[in-house]
Write a structure and sequence with these properties.
Layout: H1 4-28, E1 43-47, E2 52-61, E3 64-73, H2 76-89, H3 94-108, H4 120-123, H5 132-154
Antiparallel strand pairs: 1-2, 2-3
Bound molecules: zinc ion.
Length: 157
C-alpha cells in the first residue's frame, strides 16, 4: 500500500503530465491555424530566444471577436499558446478579450494569480512560469493579439 506522501507526489506528476499532454495536443493539432497572406497579417511577433514566430489575424463583428487565426513556427509552447488563444478569445466581446489577455500576461509574469476560472487548456500553461526564459514563448501571441484588438478598435468609427 503506497504511503500518503507517495500518493500526493504522483498526483502532482499526473497533473504535470496532463498539462504536457494538453500543450502537445495543441502543438500537434493546432486550432485555427492557417497560412496567412501578408496583407491579412495584423500582428507579427518574434521571439529571438528560440526563434518563435507568430502572425495573427482577427475579425470583429458587432463588438465581438468572431474569428482569430494564426500562422507560425517555433517551440511547442509558443505554438500551443497561440492555438489556445484563438479558441479562448473567439466569441468574447472586445473588452472581455482585452481583459483576459491582460490578466493572462500578468499571471504568466507572476504579477497576478493564475485565475482558476481560466479555461482548462490555458491552465496547462501555468507550469511555464517555472521557466522564466520560456514565459515569452507563452505570451508572445497574446501581446500580438493585444495589438490586433487595438488596431481593430482604432479602425472603428
Ligand atoms: Zn519558444
Amino acid at each position: 500500500m503506497p504511503c500518503a506522501g507517495r500518493v500526493s507526489f504522483s498526483a502532482m506528476d499526473d497533473l504535470e503530465q496532463l498539462y504536457q499532454d494538453i500543450i502537445l495536443d495543441h502543438y500537434k493539432h493546432p486550432r485555427n491555424r492557417t497560412a496567412l497572406h501578408d496583407e491579412e497579417v495584423m500582428a507579427d511577433e518574434e521571439n529571438p530566444v528560440c526563434g518563435d514566430q507568430i502572425r495573427l489575424s482577427a475579425r470583429i463583428d458587432e463588438d465581438r471577436v468572431v474569428e482569430v487565426r494564426y500562422d507560425g513556427k517555433g517551440c511547442a509552447i509558443s505554438q500551443a499558446s497561440a492555438s489556445m488563444l484563438t479558441e479562448v478569445l473567439k466569441g468574447k466581446t472586445v473588452s472581455e478579450a482585452a481583459a483576459l489577455i491582460q490578466h493572462f500576461i500578468a499571471a504568466m509574469r507572476g504579477e497576478r494569480e493564475f485565475d482558476p476560472d481560466f479555461p482548462e487548456d490555458l491552465q496547462a500553461l501555468s507550469g511555464v512560469r517555472k521557466f522564466p526564459l520560456r514565459v515569452k514563448c507563452a505570451t508572445m501571441s497574446w501581446h500580438g493579439m493585444e495589438k490586433v484588438l487595438q488596431e481593430l478598435g482604432a479602425g472603428r468609427s
